[in-house]
Automatic annotation (TrEMBL), chains A, B:
Residues 11-149 form the HTH marR-type domain. InterPro entries: HTH_MarR-typ, MarR/SlyA-like, WH-like_DNA-bd_sf, WH_DNA-bd_sf. This is MarR family transcriptional regulator. Signal peptide: none annotated. SMART domains: HTH_MARR. PANTHER family: MARR FAMILY REGULATORY PROTEIN, TRANSCRIPTIONAL REGULATOR, MARR FAMILY. It comes from Pseudonocardia adelaidensis.
Length: 164, 164
DNA sequence: CTCCAATGGTTGAGCATTCAATCGTATAGT
DNA sequence: ACTATACGATTGAATGCTCAACCATTGGAG
């Protein structure tokens, strides 16, 4: 394993990296706190409900749901179990492929999502979009798309992981 | 509590937001997996060791360390407890203020950090900086600084939380 | 000096996530 | 048809994090 010359970060890259880590950590923390306090769910669970709410019949296969929420199957399985306990999601067997399971948003789940949404969007706006110029929003979109395409999401559009 | 007209995200804002969430989630996941696999520590612990290694005497007060790692005091206390068990960090009482505690990087901790650093930097490069143009790096720095300043980090430089 | 609020830090309970192992089902190869 | 492999999903143990409660120390205010 020769060739051990590591290419360290340049000063401006290091500064960017530290700033990136700090900002994403604090932003995710703020999002989680707001949602936990006002809606009794972490941000990851909000995302699950939100993705379900936009899908036909408000339901998706577990593996599809895992893909669009950037979640491992295990993580999603635990999460859906908890959401099911809260009455926000319901599991349904898939007749065509009996390995598969659908997760479906319940009415209560939709209501919880609808109640949580305004506060969540306000928080996202306050901490992100209100601080950026329109140009910066476009730049951020291109930057995150580039990162996504390097992480195995073709085209960088997160919804591309969903089949046809 | 009137005025319940929520200002929802515009289509391009929504697309940016989804892309941002996906990219940051996957990137943090990739970082955590690589460090856990190759160095036996999550990314948050790497950061703790890294910040200590750059401080005078390789040591910092717990509350200072919490601030520069964007960590709650509780989180840091648990983390340092674990790092202490691994022999990577040592606690020392502060003579001037007996409420305060110093966390100091041990030689073993420094060695573990040094061993972990090349792989970590390679991962950061591969997933982030290698995918961005120099202009985009600058844009990302400005964007994250703007977000930071909105989250209570003056000037948006994460090191500004450190006194002196 | 005494009390009281603020500060620095720790603790324990509960929740979320990861990893590895497992189970049942589907699919392909022979 | 029979077997091996892959797939979709779940489980349990171990780890990390959050929240709230707590303890000890400090710095004032009266």
């Amino acid at each position: 394993m020769g060739g051990d010359e590591t290419r360290w970060l340049e000063p401006d890259e290091l500064e960017t990296w530290l700033s990136y880590v700090a900002a994403t950590t604090l932003l995710e923390g703020a999002l989680d706190r707001q949602l936990q306090r006002d809606a009794g769910m972490p941000h990851a669970y909000y995302q699950i409900l939100a993705m379900l709410s936009e899908s036909p019949d408000r339901s998706l296969r577990m593996s599809e749901l895992a893909a669009i929420t950037q979640s491992s199957q295990s993580r999603l399985s635990h999460a859906v179990a908890r959401l099911e306990c809260k009455g926000w999601v319901r599991r349904k067997p898939c007749p065509e492929d009996r390995r598969s399971t659908f997760a479906q948003l319940t009415e209560e789940g939709f209501a919880a999502l609808a109640a949580a949404a305004p506060g969540h969007v306000r928080t996202v706006r306050r901490h992100l979009f209100d601080r950026l110029t329109p140009e910066q929003v476009g730049q951020l979109r291109e930057i995150t798309r580039a990162v996504l395409s390097g992480l195995g999401v073709p085209g960088g559009d997160p919804r591309d992981v969903l089949p046809g």
